[in-house]
Structures are given as C-alpha cells and as structure tokens.
Amino acid sequence: MPRFSPAPATRSADAAPTGRGRWQPHHTLWAMLLGGWLFSYADRSITGPVVTWLIDNDHGMLGSATHPHALGGLIGSLFFAGYMLTQFPGGYLGDRFGHRSMIAISLLWAGVTTLASGFVGGLLAFVVLRVLTGLGEGVFYSNDRTLIARHSPPEKAGLGMGVAITGLALGLTVATIGAPYLIDWGTGTFGTAGAWRMPFIVLGAATLVFGLAMTGYLRRLGGPLKAGGPALRLLGISVVLCAAVMAVYLIADGLGLPAWGVAVAECALAFLLIGAVFARRGTRMGSVARNRNVLLLCFAFIAVMWNLWFFSFWSVSIVADAATSSFAKAALVATFNAGAGILGFPAGGWLSDLAKRRGWGRRPMIVASVVVQGLLVVVFGAYLQLVGKPSLVLMSVLLFVTSLVFNALQPMVHALLNDVVDPAERGAAFGLFNLVSEIGAVVSPALGGALFDTYRTWVPAIYLDGALMLASAALYALVRETTTPTPPPVTA
User: Fold this and answer.
1) Closest C-alpha among 153, 133, 180 to residue 489
2) At 210, which helix (H) or strand (E)?
3) What is the DSSP letter of 283?
4) Residue 442, CA distances (Å) to 26, 81, 83, 354 in order
5) 118 vs 29, 43, 291, CA distance in Å?
6) Residues 380-433: pLDDT tens digits?
7) How far is residue 294 CA from its own chain's centroid?
8) Among the listed ranges 240-249, 425-434, 470-479, which one has the minimum average pLDDT value?
9) HEC profile for 450-486?
10) pTM for the full model?
C-alpha cells in the first residue's frame, strides 16, 4: 500500500498560525487537546470506581442483583456501545464541517450528560445518560487525531498524538484516586444512599467549564466554528442510536441473556454500521474500507481497547479482591495502572517518530511492545493465582510496568494509521478505526464481571486479556509499511 504524502501546509478553516521560538502554536494545541482527553476520560472512567462502591456497599441500584459484577460491567459496556457507534459518523462530520467544531461539541455534550447523570433516579435513567455520554464523547477521538496530524510538523505527529493522549492517563488517574474522596464528600451532601452522585456532578461541571474554554481557543485557532449544523446532525444520529442501544438492552435482558450476551448483542449494532460503510465502498466515505492496512490495524486494536477498559473499569475491584484491602487503598494502588500513561504515551509517540525517521519503521516496535505487554499481563495473572495474599507494593509495580508498555504502544499505532491513509480521509479513517476497535471496550467490562461472578476470582479474565494481546501481534505483523527514512526538520 503506498504511503500518502502529508498534506501541504496551507491555511484553512482549521489551520493554526505559524510562530517562532521554542513554544510553537502546535504545542498549545497539544496542551489543549490533552485537557480534552483528561476531562472526557475522567467522565467515563468514574463509572468503574462508583460501580465498585455500589457493589461493596450493597446499594439498592446494584448491590441486590444476583450477579452484581456482571450488571456493573454491563453499564460500562453500554457506555461504550454508544461511544463506539459515533466513531465513524464523528470522523465523517469532522471531515465535512470542521474538526474543531466536533471537538467543541463533544466536550460540551459530555459535560451536560455527566452532570445530569448525578441527578437522575433509577438504574434505567442512569444507563440512558451513560449511553448518551458515550455517543457525545465518541466524536472526540477521530477529530483530535486529525487536528494533530494537520497542525503538527510531520516528523512530530507521533509525539503530538502521544502528548495529547496523555490526558487519558491523567483523567483515568483523577477518576480512580478521586472517587473515594468525592464519594465521601457526597455522603455529607446527599447522605450515604446518594453519595455516588457527587463524582458525576463535580466532573460534569468541570468538563463544562473546560469545554467553554476549549471553544474559545478553537475559535482563535481558525475562526468561527460551524457548530450548529453538525450539532443537529449528531443529535439526530444520537437519538436513533441511543434508542437502538436501549432497545437491544431491554430485549436481550427480557430474553434472559447474561450480561456478556447483552454486550455481544450491542456489538451487532456496530457490525451493522460497519456493513453500511462497506456497502458504500465506491464513495469517499467508504473508501477507507478498501485500505488493507487500515483494516488490519482496526481489528488488531480490538485487543488494546479490551485491555484498556478491562483494567480501567475493574482495576480497583481486582486489587481490592486480591489483597482484601479497603476501597481507598485499592483505588490508590490502581492509580499505578492509570498513571503510567503520563510517561508511556509521550515516550511511545517519540520513539515511533524516531524509528520512522531512521528508516526502521513503526511496525517492528509495535509488534515488540504488544508481545511484551501481553506477557506481562499473563505474569500478573499468574502472580495473583499463585500467591495467597498478594503484596500491594508488588501489584503496584506490576501494574505500572505493564501499563507503561501498553500506553507507549497506543500512539505508535495511531501514528502508523496516520501514515497509511490519505490526509483528506483521516477523520473517517480514525473514526472507522475506533468504531471497530471499541468492540473490545464494549465486551470486556461485562464479560470480565461475568467471569468473576462465575469463578470468584479475576484470574481467568486477566489470562483472557493477555491471550488477546498476544494474538493481536500477528495482525500488526501483516501491516505493510514503507520504511524510507524521514529527513530531519530544517531549522532556521
């Protein structure tokens, strides 16, 4: 597959001004998008610790369920069903109406729905709002990746993607370590039964404030935002998709399907959407479906999203169950899994850019990282299986090292995807990429919870996670990549 050349550096509605000095305009863009990742990931990640607290405290919303971990995992899976289904539409709308507009819409949408999640009563209304949050946040990823590729020097695209997505680790850390304190604060305001509301209210309000600041920045970046048209289109798409997600959930639940079965049924919606993309292969919208490399990366990355959201959703419960520790201590240990991304994401982006410049290619580094990370997950599972009461310190070290390699891997793959698509179709390509790969995020929380309810240990779910990562290495190895060294940037 030929490698497409970077788009020429011309001014457009989404173009950033040039500047001199050590701090460049693209650095500001990376920093603002890092903030976007931080707040959007805190909003989605808070559900896992809150669900763990609800189960541990036998709260009426979840604690009385026959299989509470499976039900709690299903809530996370339904969020990602929504998140997954707007990936491709979000990228397509960004290509058509402007990527800046979609990012502003996504953050403001996430703030409103997360805030509302803290005020609802009843499980069904809570699930609906989590699905709506996922639908709005789903348009962020493809437009974020495209803006970075467009505004960054080509030789620094991987680094920019790694720096910006470091906000994922920060948001995950904020949600994981902040959950016990926010719930304690909520106890004084809403009572014990309503303490779970406070994390959603605080994080939703914070996201709204940042979303307004981001909107102002994006206007200064490239002029007025054309937000009205895409917002209405996204709203229309989301109403239909939310209805579809909830219909599948209610029908599957009525039929008595297990939680993991409901999650698989939700994935069928994604395959229907993927089928619609392939049915339009002759159009620009579907042309990315003809790219062999894109498809290989899409399906290989399912394992990455499986790992990310199995550990992100259940890490507190994994630590608490293995070491029989308190909710607060377990949350503190789990932050080693989240916090490793602060180093791993930018390091992975920088290393992949270096490998590309020197003619080694990004693919060998990706394959090596996947194999190492998969083996480390298996070692973590074996440690929990063989040791009666695992050490919190050793678990922290294993989680940190495993997550460090895992987080470095992600910007490497993003940068490789950027290399193998036409610049005019980056939004659609990244949207299709995340649409397919989010299948892992939809299934893993529910199936992981179901496996725990069955075996009363997290070890089988951890082994399954490691096996999927190792299997995905074969798909990455099949990607065809040009390895011509990139000339070093010219300095004045």
Assistant:
1) 153
2) helix 197-222
3) S
4) 33, 6, 9, 34
5) 31, 11, 43
6) 999 999 998 899 999 999 999 999 999 999 999 999 998 988 887 787 788 788
7) 18
8) 425-434
9) HHHHHHCCCHHHHHHHHHHHHHHHHHHHCCCCCCCCC
10) 0.78
CA 109/CA 307 separation, integer angstroms? 27
The amino acid that residue 343 corresponds to is: L
Cβ atoms 480, 1 nearer than 8 A:
yes
Q: What is the pLDDT of residues 447-470, one digit of tens each?
A: 999 999 999 999 999 999 999 999
Q: Mean pLDDT throughout 329-352?
A: 85
Q: What percent of the chain has pLDDT over 70?
A: 90
Task: Using the Cα atoms of residue 10, residue 11, residue 12 and residue 15 in order, give the sign of their dihedral.
Answer: positive
CB 104 within 8 A of CB 74: no
Question: What pLDDT does 137 receive?
Answer: 94
Q: Which residues have CB under 8 Å from 40's CB, separation 6+? A: 106, 107, 110, 137, 140, 171, 207
| 437 burial via Cβ count (<10 Å: 0-12, 13-18, 19+) | buried
Judge whether 335 and 169 are in contact, CB under 8 Å: no
Question: Helix crossing, 68-85 with 87-97: angle to 10°?
Answer: 30
What is d(CA 140, CA 157) in angstroms, rounded to the nearest whole number?
18
Contact 367, 476 (CB under 8 A): yes
Q: Are 89 and 241 in contact (CB under 8 A)?
A: no
* HSE-CB of 75 using CA atoms within 13 angstroms: 30
Q: What are the tokens at 95?
A: 């290509």
Q: CA angle at residue 444 from 443 to 449, to 5 degrees?
A: 110
Q: Please give the Cα distance from 8 to 98 (Å, whole number).
A: 17
Residue bearing tokens 């297990």:
258
Question: Residue 43's closest CA among 163, 179, 230?
Answer: 179
Which two three-digit tokens encode residue 78?
A: 């339904």
CB of 326 closer than 8 Å to CB of 389? no
Neighbouring residues of 235: CB distance < 8 A, sequence distance ≥ 6: none
Within a 10 A sphere around the Cβ of 65, how many other Cβ atoms?
17
Pull the structure tokens for residue 443: 């299934």
Greatest pairwise CA separation for the chain in angstroms: 68
Q: What is the mean pLDDT of residues 82-97?
A: 84
| Per-residue pLDDT at 91 exceeds 90 | no
- % pLDDT > 90, the chain: 49
Instruction: State the pLDDT at residue 484.
Output: 64
